[in-house]
Amino acid sequence: MTDRELINLAIEAANNAYAPYSRFSVGAALECGDGTVITGCNVECAALGGSICAERNALCAAIGKGYRNFKRIAVYADCQDYCVPCGTCRQLLSEFAPNMEVLCVKSGGRYVSYRLYDLLPASFGPDYLNS
């Protein structure tokens, strides 16, 4: 799958977002190790702490389907700046794939690419619990 195809899936997912409070619709497309892509969107609720980001939505759906190996994720929002995952999403993604590629996409489909470990250096992970 090309970067553009993955990005297009994230853009499509953003159309399904439920963001009546922030009006900031986000879509994510998570590519699994076998090439399967699971998408997610942000879902807000009036009790804002119960809201979920697009990235975690996609990751939890993938985990629920038995996936544990991930290559990359595209994250899109119709905004001026590149849409990067929040800290909580970075932490949860790093649990499974600290080396994954993260495509951060803004309005018009322009994007930048990072490695997750560059976005979350010195992250706390499973290895800390085994030492």
Q: How big is the Rg?
A: 14 Å
The end-to-end span amounts to: 38 Å
CATH architectural category: 3-Layer(aba) Sandwich
Number of helices: 5
Number of domains in the coordinates? 1
Broad structural category: alpha+beta
CATH superfamily: Cytidine Deaminase, domain 2
The parts where pLDDT drops under 50 for at least 5 residues are none
CATH class equals Alpha Beta
CATH overall fold name = Cytidine Deaminase, domain 2
Can you describe this structure?
The mean pLDDT is 96. The N and C termini lie far apart (38 Å). This protein has helices spanning 3-14, 54-64, 87-96, 116-119, 126-129, and strands at 26-32, 37-41, 70-77, 101-105, 111-115. The chain contains five helices and five strands, in the order αββαβαββαα. The chain is globular and about 45 Å long. It has a five-stranded mixed sheet. Helices cover 31% and strands 23% of the residues. The protein is an alpha+beta fold and 131 residues long. It has a single domain (3-129), classed as Cytidine Deaminase, domain 2 (3-Layer(aba) Sandwich), CATH 3.40.140.10.
Keywords:
Cytidine Deaminase, domain 2; alpha+beta; 131 residues; globular; five-stranded mixed sheet
